[in-house]
Amino acid sequence: MFALLLSAVRARLAQTATVLVLTALGVTAVVAGPWCAIASARTAAAVDVASATAGQRTVAVREQTGPTPDPHQALADFRQEIERTLTVPAERPTVGIRQSTLADGHGVPMAYRDQLCEHVRIAGSCPSAPDEGILNTATAEVLGLRVGQQLALHRTDGDTPELFRIVGLYDMVDPAGDYWADDLFRADPSSNAEPPFFVPLEVFAHAVAPTLVYDATLPDALLRGDGGYDLAGRLRQIDYQFGVGHLHLVSFATLQLLGDIQADRHAIYEGVLISAVTVLLLAWLSLAVAGRYTGRARRPDVALLKLRGSTRFALLRLTLGQQIVPVLGGVVVGVPAGLVLARELTGLVTTGKDARTAFTLSAIGAAAALVGALVVLVVAELAALRAPVALLLRDVPPRRRGWRGDVVDAAVAALAVAAAYQARATHDPRFGPIVALAVAVLLARLVGLLAAGVAASNLRAGRLRTGLTAVQLARRPGVDRVLALLVVAVALIGTAGHGFLAAADARGAQAARELGAPRVLTVQAPNREALLHAVHVADPNGKSAMAAVVNATTQPPVLAVDASRLTAIGATVDAGPLLAPHRAAVVATAAQVGLDVRSNGPQKVAIDASFVNERSGIVRTAKFAVPRPGRQLLTAPLPGCADGCRFVSFSLNAGTATIWGLFQENPDRVLLQPATLSDPRRWRGDFTGTLGADATVAAKEGLTLAARYDQDLAGLPPATKAYLVDAPLPLPAIVAGRPPRDAVLSDPTVRAFGGERLPIRVVRSVGALPVIGRGVLIDLAAAARASVGVGASGTAQVWLSATAGPEVVDRLKANGLVVVADQSQPARRQQLAHGGPAVIAWASLAAAIAAVLLAAAALAVALAVDREPQAAGLAALRVQGLTARAARAVTVAGPIWLVALGVVGGVLAALLARAAAGA
């Protein structure tokens, strides 16, 4: 028997080799799939972790405690209690303590933190005594303090201040590092809190209710989930255990990162699995076609064995034995080929639980491919085993199809209808191959019917080449299945290729939408005025850099940009009519200013003139006391304005007064004249529309301010403000999505910087805005002028053009900006190329290429098996007068038409599948 099997295999080497190739392709796909999926998921997770912020890599535990007479022991007990429950391996744990305090009306928290002096640059010395501390450099400028002076901190409102000597001014060494990830030890723009004033731990011996803080950096391996570690589940469990007591785990950003990693992992696993299963199913379908064709070559052998009295079991054993050899050979070839392919594409996972999982899944896949191939080939042989000898010995197959083929076609059509409905409902392109398969089956049936009609008409008309070619398509058994395979393969390569190119374009578009410019620096700036000034000094021509502030915490989100530079830097949004000219600012460049004012009542009046330094953004105030009624000239010092301060507003505390002029001394210059002061278009009150707006009046003789007490606003002190309008109001804005609902009078408003609402005027509506998606785009300079002293939230950024060189970044740093993050569109596209959608696109393309190879192998089997009967038929026709040229044309035209119909049908099926998914 074994010798008989070998002789049968040798007699049909071409068919045997084709079955081996088909099996090997299926095995290669299912063996490589798990290794590629797991390795790709690990790579995607590694990229996500590498691009994560410090806040996403760090967890914090906080406790609001009572009095701490021994802060050293309190911190030690706090750390010990946490590390008993926080069993997650962590790196570089750091403890600290913080208490909210006030300094001269500003929120300046008092804090202690382990290893602080190793993570700051200090102009001075590190604090060591209980009455010493170090102050942030920017905060010192705001408060007007220097090293050696004293800082008075109030722990609570109205208590006796505690005096500290400033022994140093500090700046963070690595503001984007893990040490500074906890926002309790940074500036908090949302609450207008300055960076902490750091003191020795002994200071907290008298603390009333400080916050104890434990920060720990999570290892990259845990964040990636190496070895199947469920960090998200463990953090939720720890959070519950902490919640039972009095501790609070801060891990929202980490859980968000872990959720993104898990979503990528699931998408990759699902996409690669679908691609591998698709290849395996197509391999089985190709084997069925190959089995049907090769079975025709074995029909005489089966008939002869039946005539000799062989049983069906013996016949099955003999015919199946011929198939086992190439199938086993395909497994032997496919397993190492799959491992090599996985190693070349993604690299093999060689250690840990992931490697064991990949090995197990590959083994299961190879076994399934082997068993499935044998089952498919057995089913293909059953028809021959059941057929009578007379039918087996016929050279011409029966004209009628079996009912089983009709049932299969009907089932495929019904499945395609369901898949098309599901694809249309969910817009999921994964149902496309099922739709393509149904189109292929129906097209193959239609081509057979049309070919029969074409053959009959052309043969009657004497057009032998066309007629005989059509006969091959109409009467050769199995041609419809080969055509269906070709259609499916072409449809898959079309949809996968289009999806692959579309995914590449989508990554570029997503990177552009996320960043907004070719390169984006996330920076730390004291305020928005300082940000604008630093960018203008670093790039005076406005061709390389642009300031921006992103506030995603408001509803709707707000993107404020220096709109005059948008086009020059190559931003992904066109400001268009948003570019509105600003009036020239009123700038004082002296250390003293004067006021021409008239008190209109008997009581004493105090007027403050507020300026903002456009370099530092610090508000400077000149205070004028009006001692008596009548008109008079007053002077007041204006510190910190030698380099230029822009006038902002007048503020009146009580009574009524008329301002006739504002001027500066040394050098002497008039800042505000009566014509400007009396123009109602140049002045406004508060946007809230309450006391300040009601009491601000512009008259012909000057600006008259009248502070009155409104009984409906009980508890508010009598005061009013008049703001100089030097920016277009309402602010021109581009809106994506629904306009803001909040309004002042008829103007919609936004909280651009987290404070009071600013009125806007919608000049254009678009589908989406960069960075924020749906929200509001406004001009940063105009918003800064309209909202001086109103809120400070938002992320400061500098958008750079593609041609911006390193010297621009160096100048930005030299002008006081601290670069926290540096992102570019090419780097972001590279990160996205490792994500789930990109891996799925690669897997789909690889599956489509495998489908083309499978279809090509099935076509090769069909041509090889049909060669002898076709040659015999043409030889008979040659005897009857068919020319040699016509015979050669018929031999070549059949395969060409088959491939051409497969390509055209595949393109049609791809278009229909794409339309069904609504893509």
What's the short version?
With 919 residues, the protein is of the alpha+beta class. It is 49% helix and 21% strand.
Could you please describe the fold and organization of this structure?
Strand 14 (545-551) and strand 15 form a beta hairpin. The protein folds into five domains: 1-54 and 255-394, no CATH class; 55-254, no CATH class; 398-512 and 827-919, no CATH class; 526-582 and 729-816, no CATH class; 587-724, Lipoxygenase-1. The model is unreliable at 689-696 and 710-717 (pLDDT under 50). Helices cover 49% and strands 21% of the residues. The protein starts with a helix and ends with a helix. With 919 residues, the protein is an alpha+beta fold. Helix 2 packs antiparallel against helix 10 and helix 13 crosses helix 15 (479-515).
Major sheet size, sense and barrel closure: 10 strands, mixed
Give the percentage of residues in beta strands: 15-25%
Q: Give the helix level as a range of percent.
A: 40-55%
Count of domains: 5
SS element count, helices: 24
| Molecular shape | elongated
pLDDT averaged over residues: 81
Helix/strand class: alpha+beta
Topology (SSEs and partners):
Elements: H1 2-11, H2 13-50, H3 54-57, E1 58-64, H4 71-85, E2 91-99, E3 102-103, E4 106-107, E5 110-113, E6 120-124, E7 132-136, H5 137-143, E8 150-153, E9 162-172, E10 197-198, E11 211-217, H6 220-224, H7 231-244, E12 248-250, H8 252-307, H9 312-345, H10 352-386, H11 389-392, H12 403-426, H13 432-461, H14 464-475, H15 479-515, E13 519-524, H16 528-538, E14 545-551, E15 558-561, H17 566-569, E16 587-588, E17 592-599, E18 605-613, E19 619-626, E20 630-637, E21 645-652, E22 656-665, E23 669-672, H18 674-677, E24 683-684, H19 691-695, E25 696-699, E26 702-706, E27 720-724, E28 731-736, E29 743-744, E30 747-750, E31 758-766, E32 775-779, H20 780-786, E33 795-800, H21 806-814, E34 818-824, H22 825-832, H23 836-879, H24 884-916
Parallel strand pairs: 5-10, 7-9, 15-32, 28-31
Antiparallel strand pairs: 1-11, 1-12, 2-5, 2-11, 3-4, 6-9, 8-9, 13-33, 13-34, 14-15, 14-33, 16-21, 17-20, 17-22, 18-19, 18-21, 21-27, 22-23, 22-26, 24-27, 25-26, 28-32, 29-30, 30-31
